[in-house]
């Protein structure tokens, strides 16, 4: 694996990749875990060359978020990537590479303001779409890989690619979980031992809603259910752990993430939630598959 610590160094190597090669990109913010590595493995199974990037993107963090304490584990990350053998080039651009002095151009997918993750983190998706489009331009892949763990991010990036005619196929990899159900995340290292145990309640609550959904879906007389039924089921489970503070529970369209009040059994939905546990914000989601 070639490790490039600057864009200039990477660009020389990128030019040398023959145009016939199929290139896949896996952008990350580092502190790599098996969820990240699964995306790289998927990329390697579909592409000749895999490029990954590690960049903790300042523009997607709000003023009261964890930018300065976001885990940075460059040496361990490089070791993991070397061992996995899925990545050919690792680009670690500098902040100046991505946001040179005088930078003032942003990419913004409009019309997502009512979506709960967007509301909860104002400006977050603008930072994501800006950095992702810049990483696309820097690496010029044919395919780019993102995790279903960040459900709204997937929807927003697919929309950006469609709206701007970006000639890149977006591939979504499934969420990898710890054996007890907690979705893998770089932020899980923030959890105290006690909170780590409590955190399993997130997936338990989503699974309870999924069970309710499957029950209704199996019934011949029902055509839809109300989103509030599903939300109540989740709240019932989460209330077993009073230290879990719910930021939001969203029942959104699988197509565009817009909030649903009624969910058609033939359409399905994505239930996403965000909670605060101690000082850590955790997100997770589950897809309710249609009939
Ligand atoms: P991040 O480093 O958190 O920006 O994540 C980089 C990519 O890895 C994003 O596309 C995430 O959606 C994806 N990802 C994060 N956690 C997981 C997970 N548990 N399973 C699969 N993909 C993940």
UniProtKB/TrEMBL annotation:
Keyword flag Glycoprotein: no
Q: Which InterPro entries match?
A: Pantoate_ligase, Pantoate_ligase_C, Rossmann-like_a/b/a_fold
**Key word Ligase present in the record?**
yes
Entry's SUPFAM superfamilies?
Answer: Nucleotidylyl transferase
Which keywords belong to this entry?
Answer: ATP-binding, Ligase, Nucleotide-binding, Pantothenate biosynthesis
Q: What GO molecular function terms would the record report? A: ATP binding; pantoate-beta-alanine ligase activity
Q: What is its EC number?
A: 6.3.2.1
Task: Write down the chemical reaction(s) this protein catalyses.
Answer: (R)-pantoate + beta-alanine + ATP = (R)-pantothenate + AMP + diphosphate + H(+)
Top EC group: ligase
Give me any GO biological process, just one: pantothenate biosynthetic process
Q: Which residues form the signal peptide?
A: none
State the pathway, as annotated in the record: Cofactor biosynthesis; (R)-pantothenate biosynthesis; (R)-pantothenate from (R)-pantoate and beta-alanine: step 1/1
Which superkingdom, per the lineage?
Eukaryota
Q: Which family does it belong to?
A: Belongs to the pantothenate synthetase family.
Entry protein name:
Pantoate--beta-alanine ligase
Q: Which organism is it from?
A: Acrasis kona
Its taxonomic path starts at: Eukaryota, Discoba, Heterolobosea, Tetramitia, Eutetramitia
């Amino acid at each position: 694996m070639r490790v490039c610590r600057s864009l200039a160094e990477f660009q020389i190597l990128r030019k040398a990749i023959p145009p016939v090669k199929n290139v896949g990109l896996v952008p990350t913010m580092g502190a790599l875990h098996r969820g990240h590595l699964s995306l790289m493995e998927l990329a390697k199974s579909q592409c000749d060359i895999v490029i990954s990037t590690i960049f903790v993107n300042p523009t997607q963090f709000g003023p009261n978020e964890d930018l300065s304490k976001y885990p940075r584990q460059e040496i361990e990350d490089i070791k993991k990537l070397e061992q996995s053998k899925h990545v050919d080039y690792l680009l670690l651009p500098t902040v100046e590479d991505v946001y040179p002095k005088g930078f003032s151009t942003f990419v913004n997918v409009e019309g997502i303001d009512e979506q709960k993750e967007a509301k909860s983190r104002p400006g977050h998706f603008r930072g994501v779409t800006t950095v992702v489009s810049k990483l696309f331009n820097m690496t010029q892949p044919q395919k780019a890989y993102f995790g279903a763990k960040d459900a709204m991010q997937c929807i927003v990036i697919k929309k950006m690619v469609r709206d701007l005619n970006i000639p890149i196929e977006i591939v979504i990899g499934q969420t990898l979980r710890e054996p007890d159900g907690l979705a893998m995340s770089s932020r899980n290292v923030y959890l105290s031992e006690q909170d780590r145990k409590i955190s399993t309640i997130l997936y338990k609550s989503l699974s309870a809603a999924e069970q309710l959904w499957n029950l209704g879906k199996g019934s011949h007389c029902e055509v839809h259910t109300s989103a509030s039924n599903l939300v109540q089921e989740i709240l019932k489970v989460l209330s077993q752990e009073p230290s879990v503070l719910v930021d939001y529970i969203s029942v959104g369209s699988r197509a565009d993430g817009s909030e649903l009040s009624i969910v058609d059994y033939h359409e399905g939905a994505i239930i996403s939630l965000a909670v605060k546990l101690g000082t850590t914000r955790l997100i997770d989601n589950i897809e309710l598959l249609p009939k």
